[in-house]
Amino acid sequence: MHLSRRDFNKALATLGATGFLLRYKTEIVNAFETAKSNGVNLFWLQGQSDTACTVSLLQASDPDLYDAVEELKVGINFHPTIMPSFGDEAISVLENTEPDVLVLEGSIPTGDMEYACTFGERNGEEVTLVQWLDELIPRTKVAIVGFGSCATYGGIPSGRDFDGKSPTNAVGLYQFLKDRKPSVPVVLIPGCPGHPDWLMVTLASVLLGIVPELDDHWRPKAFFSNLIHDNCARRGFYDEGWFAESFMESDMRYNKCLFKLGCRGPMTLSACSETKWNGGINVCMNAGAPCIGCMHPGFPDEISPFFKAQSRLEIDLTKTVFTTLTGAVLVGAGAYIVTHAIRESKIEKERRKEK
């Protein structure tokens, strides 16, 4: 692939993940094949997770890219779910091989709960994920990639319990690496699960020595610069003030926006609406389910409770956080939402008068 970092990022931003994969499919597969022939080692570790991100990876939309992974053209030296070796033989790979690319799926239990996630033993003692990461991160030569919301920002395992803390003190790479300051780039791809095409593009870029342009949360800007809401197929319904009042009206045939059913699309940065899922066929909102903000760094606590409408929201795109307002004059995206909330309120009043 004869692309500079600037051209790579420009092509991604212009074409999106799906278009980029279609145009540069051959080059990406060649990048994986070259990585294999050059002896590039990819380690995939699993922390606290349900393995959904691995399933997502194996369902990458393009058959050629699937084959690239299935035939181990990427050189996946360690992956607990799909590697044929096990036991001491598998653990010896971690101990005796230098990783070029380190991928993490799942969150990291820390503090007094480090032993909530272990694999392998040394002298009869279990080895924690934290121990493995502390050993492997300094040895990683090219890049560290977090795949999925758990690996990036903690995800579901980091959710606070009734005592106000995560039961396992779970964190993602964003928090875990703040003090460790690795010498290689860190790229985070949140999502529950993460999108396979975004991962394939990211792996291809780092194997080519091109680091995607990242935002303050270490996410590729190509996939995390626009609100899901901006390109949603239901956006027109939102603008017209047509809102589903219950899940009985969530089907697309009703021509209703799902904002009142708790859709977090207006405050979540992600290319879900453009790239879509299952080979570019569908996305949550099109299937009748409101976005639950799984791509948001504060997922799940900051966007809970799910499926509950929040009428006024301020969106801070620089920090990617949102808070419920008691009343204020908003600017930017926040003002846009409030404007339509006011419009919706007027429509409701007119309907009551008609009744």
UniProtKB/TrEMBL annotation:
Residues 51-205 form the NADH:ubiquinone oxidoreductase-like 20kDa subunit domain. Keywords: 4Fe-4S, Iron, Iron-sulfur, Membrane, Metal-binding, Oxidoreductase, Signal, Transmembrane, Transmembrane helix. Its cofactor is [4Fe-4S] cluster. It is found in: Cell envelope. Residues 224-306 form the Cytochrome-c3 hydrogenase C-terminal domain. The keyword Signal applies. The chain crosses the membrane at residues 321-342. InterPro entries: Cytochrome-c3_hydrogenase_C (IPR027394), NADH_UbQ_OxRdtase-like_20kDa (IPR006137), NiFe-Hase_small_C_sf (IPR037148), NiFe_Hase_small_N_sf (IPR037024), NiFe_hydrogenase_ssu (IPR001821). Belongs to the [NiFe]/[NiFeSe] hydrogenase small subunit family. This is Hydrogenase small subunit.
